[in-house]
Amino acid sequence: MKVEDIIREVLYIDETTELSDDIGPGQLEAWDSLGHVNIITAIEDEYDIEISPEEIGEINSITEIKKILIKKGAITE
Amino acid sequence: MKVNSIVEGFFYNSEKTPDKTALIWGNEKISYEEVSECILKVAGFLKNQGVSEGDRVAFYGEKSPLFLYTYFATHLINAVAVPLDIKLPDERLADLISQTEPHILLHPTDISHSFKQLPFDKNLLDAEPLKSFEFPDKDLTADILFTTGTTGSSKGVKLTHHNILAGAENSNIFIGNNSSDTEIIPLPLHHAFGLRRLRTNMLLGATVVLVDGFIFPKLFFDAMENYGANGICMVPAGFSIVKKLMKRTYIDYFKKLKYIEFGSSSMENSEKKDLAEALPDTRICMHYGLTEVAANIFIEFHDDDSKLNALGKPSPNTLVKIVSDAGIEQPTKEVGEIVVKGAVQTPGYWKKPELTNDSFINGWFKTGDLGFADEEGYIFLSGRKDDVMNIGGKKVFPGEIEEIINQHILVKDSACISVKESGVITGEMIKAFVVPENKEKLDLKELMNFLREKLEPFKIPSEIIFISRIPHTSSGKKQRDKLK
Q: What's the ipTM?
């Protein structure tokens, strides 16, 4: 599943809400702290990886999530 | 020095320690003197707008230094502060404004109302500073803070300067923080807990670091490393988020804290015990409180380690007892309603005399919570007298969510319950049962979008289940218990 699809599913966001790469935590009403935890957990489960606290601290956009996944070999550029 | 209001205490500190940092916001450090100058400018602005004693000033409750300036400026001119949740949907915002009839509304959202509105921005600081003023009398109304009512309509809790001063002093005595401390406040400032922590620190002459919520907990650790922050206030749900995002690393940082104040909501005893063991030198305090009577019971996880399932004991200078429906004090271990008396006690609700009357019994405030006391004076919570849910420390009535769900054109009926599940960050989660008019046409995501437009985020159900009928009694009352 694509990162955007995971986010849509976790946050109950339909296609009418645009999810560009620069969107991040705190920028959508549903992407609050609780939504953020749920996204991180869903991504860890989906790609079977662990995201470290340091990496989580750097996540301020979908781009950063994708960078982490590329670094861990979970997705390709 | 004895003061009659928090704002008087703030200006006393500003005179005494003008160069001391009062606020840290991002990379900006703002001294007591600088804050006092900004307060005087906003006070000058409000005076120019014709605000006078007793007028309501409703303003955007964002986390920023401007919030503090506006809050204290309102008090300084003896007006009444009405801080508004920034996430209020338009309809609810309009309700609060029409209830309080503010002389001025400082808010970025232009909604339909008949009151003077100006943006909540730096223009407030352009006015000439107020030259002369008198600190408010202790019995004047300082704030109107809104909490949820059973029918979906919010109720405004009036708090006098005496109430908020007592709330700050009592919690300081219990927690033991002082002017040399620096506290991280990630909680919203329009809400009773976050606002009390802000007032408390400003009264002491301490420093606060304002952090925007729990979404970036690394900011807490930065504040500890860069600014020597040694205290934090949080709700258990926020703490769960910190733990999930920062995993075990949070312990290395948190064990350097002098104190934590938790707001009371669901936290497992085992978690309290683990936290006490992991942070042996930190004073870990948890309060039981309501906007109407502040933090009126406290527990400390080390001192009270044998009674961690209790709410705790009454706060300093506060009386708490358990009474029957007739107001008679219950014997030890007998369940009754928890009632509170003391200087923190609200004089009542804004323009709701009947509700005010119903909320007191023989001069004691009725919390609506059921509990009992043990032989050592610890108070235990048994449940609620009504169907209220506690979602991450915030009270939510099922009726108000159901009312909104039922407004959807494809919904016939609904019922909401709270469910306690281990691992749920907010302690309890809202589960909504919905009877669709047409199951094929009602889309779950579309319904969620509909709710997001009309409800604050913490009131959005975590789970929605479509069912064919909501159980009712013969008299038509919803039987929510049958859905559990």
A: 0.86
